[in-house]
Design a protein that fits this description.
It is a single chain. The chain is α+β, with helices and mostly antiparallel strands. It has one domain: 3-Layer(aba) Sandwich (Beta-lactamase). Helix content is 32%, strand content 15%. The chain is built from 11 helices and 13 strands. A 6-stranded antiparallel sheet has the order 3-2-12-11-10-9, with helices on both faces. Strands 5-4-8 form a 3-stranded mixed sheet. Strands 1-13 form a two-stranded antiparallel sheet. Strand 11 and strand 12 form a beta hairpin. It is globular and about 55 Å long.
Amino acid sequence: MNFHNKDGMTAYLQSLVDEELTPCISVAASYKGETVYAGTAARKNDPLYEGYNAQIRHNIGSVSKIITGALFAKALETGKLTVWDRVKKFLPEYPYEDNDIMQLLCHSTGYSSFIENIPRPHFELTTDEYVALICKNAVREYAPGTESRYFSLGYTLVMAIIERVTGMDYESFARKVLFDPIGMNDSTFDMHKVSPANTILPYNRDTDTYETDWCRRPTGDSGLYTTAADLLKFGNLLNDAYHGRENPVFTQWQAHYLFGECTEGKFIRTPAMWMKGNHDRYGFFGDFCSPEACGHTGYSGCMLMVDPTYEISIAILTNSCHLHMNWNNYRIISNRIMGEIRN
């Protein structure tokens, strides 16, 4: 297998930067477990991007949810919980008796999309304190299970459940069961481990400003800092496990759980990802992806797509909130990438 025109792809990435869709971009793609393309582009003559390369970490926003869903699958191995357990069993401060963990994973809890009056989770807040704020301020607006409205903070509640069940802090658990076994050495939920020297924060083109907050504590919904190469390792892991190939993390059955539509077709979701399906209701999957392709996007202009049918994974990392405002941008870039992959 090969990538038909690597130089042309890199020139295309630079054109996205030159057109000001994003200040920087890092892309990696694999086919049947082999990296077929890795490239970057960034603003020229801008001191902030002078050293930009594939090792620079990005905050991938809600793409973090895929990792949290996968870590929950590993927590299931403890035998202490199931996806159908009530949330309140593990979070006594949770205000409702009838929500199960699957509803958190599928955004069908009854909560609205976003909650006001919840501060950013800075280091001075413990996870328990932050969870208490979420539980206190969140109010349900529809009957659980009847709709799917994006409730981002639900994945931080999943993170808290994982911590309480395993007795480990989130970063340590992620390192033990996922990051270290597959060599995701440039990935972390802990902002103590990132700095301006190795990380670029999200950029708002409308205001020409960057996020400047380096003091956030780990969150399961949007707190991962990583590289395109590390995300690709995770995508390859899922494809390997799905097809029954040896790997250090997941069994084939766990992979089928992570890729499996779990809402009886109502919301076209798996326990960790969005699914393309026969009709792409999300609008970011490439047109060439199979209906079984799964993935997620992040507000900072990032995307991971894993297609178990074609065994292709694509990681797109930027710091552009502007790019994320139109998810068709991800589809267009994915189409360009998949158009170059040759069997």
